[in-house]
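Supplementary Methods, section 5.1.

A reviewer requested that the exact input to the structure prediction be made available. We therefore reproduce it here, unchanged from the version used in the analyses.
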Amino acid sequence: MSTPLEPDAQQRAELNEQADRFLEEWYSRVETMNASGEPLTDRQISDLMEPPREQGRDFARILDDLDLAGQAGILHPSSGHMSYIPNGGLYTGAIAEQLAAGLNRYTGVAGAAPGMTAIETGVTQWVAGLFGMGESAAAILLSGGSTANLTGIVAARVNRLGDHFDDGVIYLTAHTHHSVAKAARIAGFRNDQIRIVPVDADLRMRVDVMEEMVTQDTESGLRPFLVVASAGTTDTGTVDDLEAIGAVAKRHELWMHTDAAYGGFFVLTERGRKALAGIGESDSVAVDPHKGLSIPFGVGALVVRDQNYLLDANYGRGAYLNHEEVTQGLRDISSLGPELSRPFRGLSVWLPLQLHGVAPFRKALDDALDVAEHGYERVRQLDGIRANWKPDLSIVAFGFEDDTVGREAMRRVNEDRVTHISSTEVEGRFILRLAVLNRRTTIEDVDHAIDMIQKALIG
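The structure derived from this sequence is encoded token-by-token as follows.
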């Protein structure tokens, strides 16, 4: 006997059939999908905000509303999506999330779901092993790069400063992702405890100046404790000199945190490993499976050199109790991060990797590097373009001799809707970005956007 909250087998089959058909229709449009949709009307927005009724609605009507809601904004599966940091999504990742939600097993405590915890622990061990941070390296899956940066900063604070940290100093650049400064504030640091290190002509941290600042702060009685490096900035994709930063961090006993949310998984490729040389010197690394691996949004990771760093910062009873809260050798995930209640994120990463293997993900990242290189070679040949930065990874960033022309170029590209690009500012100048990370993005997509930019340059 079924009830509204307990559909029987036939009702479940009908719901699944409708949901599967809805998704299949969505995926069938991917190859011809524009990168952005038409805006919704104010009335449509208002209708979508309607609160739940006392009695339920027909599932087909609900899916109609969902279809309407999905027609506007950036259409992430589109091969033309090259704005911000693209995530094209992964069908098998969606299946994994459905299974995880359907099973609804709690993975915060290992004893509650030891098999599920084993799956997630295996995934995090694989991620932790990618960066050359030593045999004691460990990782935790979190909601994204912002939470990973926050968790890394708190671990650094506890490890280097202890309970009293009002004299601690953090070093980053103007191109460090804004989530880092936000995380520092959440972690209790004032703005005057954050130093902005200048960058060179290639937008990399001036490591020599950073070391001078550390020395001056130390001589002033402050406690420098954390330097944040970027392994692929969101603005331009720039990778800092990680080896040099690591050397300074070691000399001054600083914690080195590397924000590799966008760029980290390029270590799967030969070119990426060269670009990210020195990342193994980090004490912590933020990296997002929902970027480099196309896992559905909501899956980031923090890698640390030693699991005890996370335990000390989050468990609350110290690393000397390492034998506590362990089931069959599996550590409670909740003791390593800020979340007690958490979804079974590990399945979203584990299932696609088990099903496809690592090779297709490596190839997709290699292809992104190729497409970005093509885009750079094209834009640098255009009159009126200032292509000052050869891509370190897969973001092509370039300016214009006339910023007004640049803004007009972006307007034309995005109003066309076939492709979608975004902008930033560097030293007060307008910068366009072609961010290639969606595995569906091709040279033809990049050429389409550049052709429209070229028309704007001509006038």
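The CA atoms of residues 49 and 224 lie 48 Å apart. These observations are discussed further in the main text.
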